[in-house]
Amino acid sequence: MRLKIAVLAGDGIGPEVTKQATNILRAVAEMGGHEFTFVEGLIGGTAITETGSPLPTATLDAALECDAVLLGAVGDNKFNALPPDKRPEAGLLQIRQALGGFANLRPSIAYTALSASSPLRPEVTKDVDILFVRELLGGLYFGAPRWWDRNSNEAINTMRYTRDEVVRVARVAFELAGNRRQKVTSVDKANVLEVSQLWRATVTEVAKDYPSVTLEHQLVDSMAMHIMNIPRNFDVVLTENLFGDILSDEAGVITGSLGMLPSATIGGAVNLYEPVHGSAPDIAGTGKANPLGAILTAAMILRHSANLEQDAKAVEAAVNKVLDAGYRTADIARGQQPGQTPVSTQEMGKLVHQAL
Amino acid sequence: MRLKIAVLAGDGIGPEVTKQATNILRAVAEMGGHEFTFVEGLIGGTAITETGSPLPTATLDAALECDAVLLGAVGDNKFNALPPDKRPEAGLLQIRQALGGFANLRPSIAYTALSASSPLRPEVTKDVDILFVRELLGGLYFGAPRWWDRNSNEAINTMRYTRDEVVRVARVAFELAGNRRQKVTSVDKANVLEVSQLWRATVTEVAKDYPSVTLEHQLVDSMAMHIMNIPRNFDVVLTENLFGDILSDEAGVITGSLGMLPSATIGGAVNLYEPVHGSAPDIAGTGKANPLGAILTAAMILRHSANLEQDAKAVEAAVNKVLDAGYRTADIARGQQPGQTPVSTQEMGKLVHQAL
Ligand SMILES: CC(C)[C@H](C(=O)O)[C@@H](O)C(=O)O
Ligand SMILES: CC(C)[C@H](C(=O)O)[C@@H](O)C(=O)O
């Protein structure tokens, strides 16, 4: 099996966690006799500093020639004063759009070993296994008109969806639910927003093609509550772009840390893989970053781009094993118990490698 | 002291919880020799059924002549197929706009007696006391253009804010923080949305007039997580309309139930008071509804419209006493302990009355 992966490490803790993820991919390739090649590229704040653009053409060209893109994280407080289209995050939004993946898959799983890291009670998080399917190319993120300049007294963004955009992401959600617990929870604000009415009507239409999957609708405000109160009730959660951004971060609370959450964006020319966490500039270079989000993202590459389901599972099992053995980066050390060992980013990466 | 209160009980559990709230207000009036008069009006689904409009002119006229409006809840699944402007919720949005209150205050407090009702660990919720200040008249809720018809393949909503709209609600937040723990956390999505950039720049400007109050900015996605992980870190949380809708419902998790949360909307011609919970049509008439949200909302009327701070505190103390004595409606009975007594909506109201 051959796979060409663009590695865009980005800002803050991006490079350090990405390094651990590529180490794991190298190990998998070696063990399985696969040929994985890695092409590095600049993105985000680092790219602005070196080239003036948050997504240099060279990066995009390279990415489009690869089978998968592994992105670390983008964002740097240094650029906070700039308008959205000049910031590191613009590079992320541009590459998402250019690669064309519209379905962002964000699993949120409760690891038994980490139940003490969550602010939620263990009986609440027990056995939770949610898969967010977040629409990634529509809504307020990309809607026009969008407008503000510093001297103006008014600003505008546009939330816009077409039926086709909803249909295609809904299909992904129903397909995935078919291989899971047969339930899709679609999130909207249909009691207020016209866009949500289109969303709800369209998802309801699509559901007819999947008679074995149960569809329920939840308002985004209620959902923000339910997902903490009864997370076990949810299987696949389908959302528009911004609601998915908010709810999937919130669901990090279930796992105990955002640092544990992987994501894969599928449906476009090239799949895009990124841990859910941000660039966390405050802890960059301190060895405190949790590489497991990035490593689990690597597992998603194996699953969705390399069709190596067994290897994906092996990486996930290795992560579980290391957690069960009590190794903890700072973010997952809440309520630390005797028998737990604090480790750095790099040590954590090595431990997973060994467990593999 | 005289006070004329418009009571718009609305749909679902609205009437039953509102009744308990007005009982308490009557008791306070009697004990203090005040003259509170109540004027009833139709709103929401009930109003649609009886008059064809979710906010009949008679209701609005009556409300505008009162000193305060107490609203129960609106929303009824029967109208789910209607477009936003024909639904019960339209009545709520219209009266919010007509009364002109732009600052929706939503306290989120952890009651020691209820710590077992929260899915969060007791050590996480301990001593939490957050006050949301949610902008209530702008953003996606009211922005134009807004558009969808059932035959169209596209839908649009507009997120729009003016500097003045941000300034006036920010001032409320800073004023309130000045009487509390001197901290304002402003929530936005400034790394993506132009509207959030206006929001952030304006709030930062306003902060200069309140040098003793600390201002911090949080992105809405991170905030959805932080508020569960470290709720004690927050004092006043300032948000635009939709972000406040989502985050304040989420914060219901801290108290243990949405049924406990009151709200007051100030700054307009007439203050509007409503519990945060919805109409919960599934439990309407079963005696399961928690009237404490409505009763605590009544306490906010005493505080913000009647200037009866002592009486407001007395009502809040009575609620605490009843909770400490172990009385629980269904929603706050999670992890029920020996020594707790399940009670109905009406019994709960009576108990608070007696404790007063
Ligand atoms: C960095 C930011 C633009 C991004 C988003 O909002 O999509 C991030 O929060 C995420 O969830 O991937
Ligand atoms: C019923 C609905 C229109 C309302 C809102 O979204 O504002 C409710 O959720 C609230 O928070 O008061």
UniProtKB/TrEMBL annotation, chains A, B:
Keyword Transferase: no
Protein name: 3-isopropylmalate dehydrogenase
Species, as recorded: Tunturiibacter psychrotolerans
Pfam families attached to this UniProt entry: Iso_dh (PF00180)
Family according to the record: Belongs to the isocitrate and isopropylmalate dehydrogenases family. LeuB type 1 subfamily.
Cofactor note: Binds 1 Mg(2+) or Mn(2+) ion per subunit.
Record NCBIfam families: leuB
InterPro entries with a match to the protein in the record: IsoCit/isopropylmalate_DH_CS (IPR019818), IsoPropMal-DH-like_dom (IPR024084), Isopropylmalate_DH (IPR004429)
Subunit structure of this chain's protein: Homodimer.
